[in-house]
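Methods — Computational structure assignment.
A single polypeptide chain was analysed. Its primary sequence is given first, followed by the predicted tertiary structure written as structure tokens.
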Amino acid sequence: MSFNDKDIVSALVAALSAHLGAQRYTAWFGRNVEFQFDGSALKVLTPDAFYVDWLRTNYRELIAEICQQIGLADVAVQFALCEVVKPPAAEECAQPLTVVTPPADADESASGTAVLEPPKARAEANSGRRRFAQFATFVVGESNRVGYTAAQIVAREPGRVTPLVLYGPPGTGKTHLLEALWSELRISRPQAHLIYQRAEQFTSQFVEALRGSGMPAFRRKYRHAQLLILDDLQFFSNKRATLDELLYTIDQLQDSGGQVVLAADRSPSELTCLGPELASRLQGSMVCRIDPADEATRRAIMRRVADRQGLELGDEVEAFIAARLRGDGRELIGAIHRLRVEVEATGRAIDVEMARTTLAELFVAAQRPVQLPEIEQAICEVCGVRPADLQSSSRAKEATYPRMLAMYLARKLTTAAFSEIGAYFGQRKHTTVISATNKVALWRETNEIVRLGGASLPVDELVRRVEARLRAG
């Protein structure tokens, strides 16, 4: 590399760091990425295939824009694998602390912390307690592969990808990944200070600390951790004092090289109830969406659980159940448990008819029809409109686009006729509903971008958010 090439890389690094801020630049590029410029192309090199894809998806446009700012017009930005770029110094890998905070169901002292024994002794002593999930039992599919890979990266190298945010509707495996990450690190780093809690527990302990003047102890516990896992992030909604404390805690952990992992039922951009500062901070982190399992993954989940139960389902039964229980892993596991009880109680062989009668109640509950008022409420929450806007005669895009989306989803998710949908949304003719559903379907085919409430989103993403809100209830 020539002297001028080195100057170009230095200018790029300086501009990128200024744009992201020193903390975020260090988290994503500090020791994981190397830039090389050969006169015609800028290469972004990192030793991890997952990281290559993630950087390409999230930072290609920003890096290209900064290249133009420093005088590199139309330069090709290339992302590629390389050998280990900047291995962490020995002191970065040291984990000297000795206090471990167990999850909620572990035995705790009055202060909420406990010193755990080494893994082998701990396993023998607690053999009667529920075992936390492992990576080995997680069924990987297209719907969860990115989140699974990110969690494994954190398990191998805590602090490299932080904060990590996993989000998706209930039953998609977020808690399984959190437990697997916890299990992996408490075995590989038994002396580390690890915390795994639900947001509700964090809030309760914070309130107790405030009332009992125990804030110094509370802050020592959380701000000196090397791993903080918090589930159900949406629970912090509109809890201003708790959110401020959480924000300071995340800042402190990032400054000290700690790892933060958060899980929520929706994306950071949808968690406006957390306040603009925290929501913005999380949008700049590693965010991984976990979708409901597709059919192949649902069948793999059932097969794995059935194997552990000593049951043989067969392809026909697997397909039958997977077609009726769509996406919620807990429902699938519950179905296998019910089949096992039926087998033990009656001795019946598992076939389609036996599954139909045994799981009939579960099928009915899983396929509860969506009602028009539920779609209206979900549209209003996701699109930031009022029910009156959906009923109005306004032709402004801020009202017509959500209204058309509501009609499309009403036709897709309910049994209501075109005329019934039109009457519900402002006494409109059935031809208006047909036109709206066809229009939204075309948008989805052409990957249309819709601007609502100051934000631009693909129609598919809007539909996904509304459907996720409907599943959450």
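Note: The longest strand covers residues 41-46.
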